[in-house]
Each structure stands twice: as C-alpha cells, then as structure tokens.
Specification:
Strand order of the largest sheet: 1-2-4-3-5-6-7-8
Largest sheet: 8 strands, mixed
Number of helices: 9
Order of helices and strands: HEEEHEHEHEHHEHEHH
Distance between the termini: 48 Å
Radius of gyration: 18 Å
C-alpha cells in the first residue's frame, strides 16, 4: 500500500518512526471513539480552530491563567472532548497556568476522522498553533505538554521533537507504547516492518530529554500500573517522577486523589528547579 512519509518540522535526535505505514488499515483507526460535541466556553475561555489538512480543522479551547505563568498544551483521553474540561480547567488557571485543551479529528467540534498516524502528525501542527496563540496574547512563561491516556502518544511525540521549546512532559494514566501497532503488523505478516517500527518507537521514547512527571492510578484497569512502570523505566532523562494515586483507577484520579494530583502538578509546573525524588 502506498503511503506518504511524514516530514517533521523539527530536527529530531533519532530516526522518527514511520507510523504512516499503517494508514488506511484497520489498525490505524482501531480504538478511537470520537464524540462530536460542543458547549459554550466559560467566561474568559476561547475556542480556536487549527487547519491540519485540506478541509479539516481541529478545535482547541484555551483557558487563560496568568500571562506570565506556565502554559500547558493538553491532549485528552479517548471518548473525551475539550469541552469536558470546563470544570477541570479552574484547578489549573487558579494556579496561574494557561491551559489549552486540544481535540482530535472527529472529536468535539473538529472535522475529519481520527487515525493514529494523523493524530501524531496533527500534534505538530497544533503545537505550532498553540505557540502562535500564546505569542499573540503576550504569554511569556514556559511551555509544557501533557497527555492523558491516549493523549500520551501526542504528548510524547512533541516532547521527543521539541526539547528546546518545551520545559517538561506530564502523562496521566498513559503509557505510550507501540504494542498495538506492532501486533497488527505481525499478524498481517509484516514482521520486519513491525520490528523496525518498535525499534524506532522505543528510540523515540528514550530520546525524550525533558523532565517528566507521570501520574497513574494504583488500580488502573485499562493501563495497569505495571505497564506505566515499564514505560517509566524506558525513559532515560535524569529528572523523572512516577506519582501513584492510591486506590485510583483509570478515570478517577482527580476525584480519588485530588490533593495529591494537583500538588504534583503544582510542584512540577511552578517549581521546575526542584529535584525530583
């Protein structure tokens, strides 16, 4: 099957995986649960659209905190939308964090249909738009990227490619492995491609040099803590922390351990010079 290899706008210190080899296959769109949805932004928040392909735009919602504070580009989990963060955003903005929640194709008020290769390619475009919106609004603080569950893939993608433009990486309930894609390629008799994709993906993860905070539920039923721990051990940066929320599952970290969760976020975003244990 013919495919177009993605050309990345940043110089990577690794050989980028060619995820486009699965575009158009069952594996590319498997596991996505797009939910079209829109609700008016709360006072002070704004929506903006980003053109990611001809005729396709992806929506983002910006929740402003402090113009001089840190800014966080957030990729949400599967089945969620940017509008779902109207009630969560104040936990960030009250700390002075500018929170920008990005959707995916087919999610929220975005057009198109999602796939794994386009999700990662779009992340680069969304990051540039995020930077432009911050610059237009005079935001001067450090930039961070965060991914929850499925969004960990987009966040790790950007963290690996833009170490000079980002201050840190945060992952919630995520372990950005390529296992599902590798299994598909192997089952389709494409073993050599599977091994190469797995090698390059692991190389990308190991290339992430940014300080990293992972927050995970002790009893995560979708991505077990053992998977998160294995991913954490793959990371090679000196500054990394795995914060485990006791008694929490995949989707209830904030509600089970709100104080612990936000204390970890606050220390990471507002006290980046502090050593991580």
């Amino acid at each position: 099957m013919a495919h177009r290899r993605m050309v990345y706008p940043a110089l990577a210190m690794f050989d980028p995986p060619d995820y486009s080899i699965i575009e158009g296959t069952e594996a590319a769109a498997r596991g996505f649960f797009p939910r079209p949805d829109w609700a008016p932004p709360p006072p002070g928040a704004t929506d903006f659209m980003v053109a990611v392909a001809e005729g396709v735009q992806v929506g983002c919602r910006m929740f402003p905190g402090d113009r001089n504070g840190p800014s966080l580009l957030f990729f949400h989990g599967n089945g969620e939308t940017a509008c779902d963060y109207n009630d969560i955003a104040p936990f960030y903005t009250r700390m002075g964090v500018n929170l920008c929640v990005a959707d995916y194709r087919g999610y929220g008020f975005s057009g198109g249909s999602p796939s794994f290769p386009t999700m990662l390619a779009d992340a680069h475009v969304l990051f540039r738009a995020f930077q432009e919106v911050l610059a237009a609004n005079g935001a001067s603080g450090a930039r961070y990227v965060m991914g929850r569950s499925m969004g960990a893939h987009s966040a790790v993608e950007l963290a690996a490619h833009y170490p000079g433009e980002l201050r840190g990486l945060v992952l919630e309930s995520g372990a950005a492995s390529a296992g599902r894609l590798v299994e598909y390629l192997e089952s389709a008799g494409r073993g050599a491609e599977a091994r190469e994709l797995e090698r390059r993906h692991t190389e990308k993860v190991r290339a992430v040099a940014l300080p990293t905070l992972m927050i995970h539920g002790e009893w995560d039923e979708l991505i077990p803590l053992s998977r998160a721990t294995a991913f954490f051990e793959t990371l090679t940066m000196a500054q990394k922390r795995l914060e485990v929320i006791p008694g929490a599952g995949h989707n209830d970290l904030l509600w089970v351990g709100l104080e612990q969760y936000m204390a970890a976020i606050r220390a990471f975003l507002l006290e980046p010079a502090q050593p991580t244990p």
